[in-house]
Amino acid sequence: MRTSIATVSLSGSLSEKLTAAARAGFDAVEIFENDLLASPLTPEEIRARCADLGLGIDLYQPMRDMEAVPEEQFAANLRRARRKFELMRRLGADTVLVCSSVHPLAVDDDALAAEQLGHLADLAGEFGIRVAYEALAWGRHVSTYDHAWRIVRTADHPALGTCLDSFHILSRGSDPKGIEDIPGEKIFFLQLADAPLPAMDVLQWSRHHRCFPGQGGLDVTDLVRRVLRTGYDGPLSLEVFNDVHRQSEAGPTAVDAHRSLLVLQETVGVWTPPAAVVPTGVAFAELLTPDAAPVTALLGALGFTRTARHRSKPVDLWEQGEARLLVNTGPTGRRDGTGLAAIGLESPDPRGAARRAEALLAPVLPRRRAAEDAPLEAVAAPDGTELFFCATDRAQLPNWRADFAAVPHEPAGLGPQQGPGPAYAGAVRRIDHLALVQPWHQFDEAALFHRSVLGLHAQESVDVADPYGLMRSRAVTNTDGSVRIVLSVGAAPSDDTVHAQHLAFATDDVVAAARRFRDAGGRLLPIPANYYDDLAARFEFADGELETYRALGILYDRDAYGEFRHCYTRTVGRVFLELVQRDGYRGYGAQNAPVRLAAQHTVTAG
Fold first, then answer.
1. What pLDDT score was predicted for residue 368?
2. Cβ density class 126-145: b for 16+ within 10 Å, e for less
3. Which end of the chain has less neighbouring CB within 10 Å, N or C?
4. Rounded to 5 degrees, what are φ and ψ at 533?
């Protein structure tokens, strides 16, 4: 279907917004009046700029407080409308959005509203313009879509139709079933937005907290299905008022916006992209570092062994059990310190996974490789993390491990029990989960990306108390939990010292793992004594169990499915590691996150 976006949904000047929309693949835009008023371009120049970019202008908006007003006020409204219609003719826009009135002089009189909207439509018709009447959720007398439609039906004018806005409909809890009773040709426009489900005034909710479809809690999909059943053949257009988007770069926001409409079209069955290829495991995680020594010391203390070296790049493979880490000391790692640069995802169809990612606007990464290197498919996540689609040790498919040459196993600090295999109590079995800190303005985009591009299931968002604010967190997983990624955003845009990325390793015995790590010279994150006093009040433990946790800095939680024990290393660069013992437990220790964050702040400050 044709796609459109309101310029108010993006940041920057009108020219920047138009460029971003075109580059993201939109067919058209809605010109928001404030953007035009602030632009140095004339309406003719804006029209020409849109044409050069391949953009149509599907709507001009908003025209406010037009109907159900005293005669003298309505005469002034018609004078204002004539000037706007003249401007729209210069602009090349043929549909205007008229919002239900919030004017203090507006009266509760549907017959008067229909009569005055009919006169407005007469005037619009002289200019070849259609009037799309929309019920604002906070309209003075008209606040529901069915009420707005009754007025349009009463007016019975060919140049007057209705505009349906998913936010205004769903935020009031209106039943969208009645949409199917509206003739499709009388739905002049469809505006889409999602939103979280907070308890706040609907006007503030609308003006500051809308988001793109699939990123909130409103059932936009059901609404669109009902609109399409009417025979509506107009564009799917986004109108999203969001404080974060207003402060973000327009280009990436436009890509996120267009991806949300592509996903929506797939869900309602009007577009068929390549099918999702859900990853079946984590092949590797890659750490990029300017100094390998602290990283390899940390891995050695955890029992990892350096097993191979890349044939043409400064990259080492470290293994333990099924957990594989690549340590990359290439020149790009010298700018930002140690960080998680890439994730290898096991895929039953790497090429198919890449095709879907590309169809959903994920940037395909060019890869500098030697002639003998495996041709891996890779795309970039919104935060810049590189995602490789891998087929480890599978015949007939490129194998990334073939790029590495085995090296003699080096001492890892654990004596005779070292090696990639889990031969001792407390050994690392696999990567349990990865935690990625998102740029503060891309949290919702990241969740939609991982859900739609990778086919992962997004769990509910969780707010975690940080000493300096709130941290939002949301996990995405595959069905069996072999891929778990936790997306989070810090308490403040500049707070990246504590809210680092981290890797969590699964072990069957976290106490033994913590002791081995400590005995090998590793430093665990110290946890305040008050935490263990609280544990003693909340849970019953076996004799000596809590004292062991206190001595090692092990945290504890339980849910309806089982128990969770975990501990953390100190941070190296922008990465820290976690050891977890998951006995049926399905969460990630969110209850303990405030304690961990406070402890990390204390260590950093010290």
1. 63
2. ebebbbbbbbbbbbbbbbbb
3. C
4. -65, -40
Identify which of 71, 47, 67 has the alpha carbon closest to the alpha carbon of residue 57.
47
The residues, ordered by sequence, that sit 6+ positions from 172 with a Cβ below 8 Å of its Cβ are: 137, 143, 144, 202
3-state secondary structure 405-462: EECCCCCCCCHHHCCCCCCCCCCEEEEEEEEEECCCCCHHHHHHHHHHCCCCEECCCE
Q: Which residue is it, tokens 């024990």? A: 565
Please tell me the distance from the alpha carbon of residue 93 to that of residue 105, in angstroms, as a whole number. Answer: 30
Angle at 295 between CA 515 and CA 345, to 5 degrees: 95
If you count DSSP H runs as helices and E runs as strands, how many of each does the chain have, helices first?
A: 18, 25
Q: 234 near 189, Cβ under 8 Å?
A: yes
- Which residues partner with 149 through β-bridges? none
- Please give the single-letter amino acid code of residue 16: E
> pTM here?
0.82
Q: What is the pLDDT of residues 117-132, one digit of tens each?
A: 999 999 999 999 999 9
Token pair 């008050």 is at which residue?
530
Is the CB of residue 102 less than 8 Å from the CB of residue 167? no
- Give the CA radius of gyration of the chain: 28
Cβ atoms within 10 Å, residue 208: 14
- 451: number of Cβ within 10 Å: 18
Q: How far apart are the first and last CA of the chain?
A: 57
Taking the C-alpha atoms of residue 336 and residue 555, their distance in angstroms, rounded to an integer, is 30
> Tokens 């998680």 identify what position?
340
Reference 566, options 595, 601, 536; nearest CA is 595
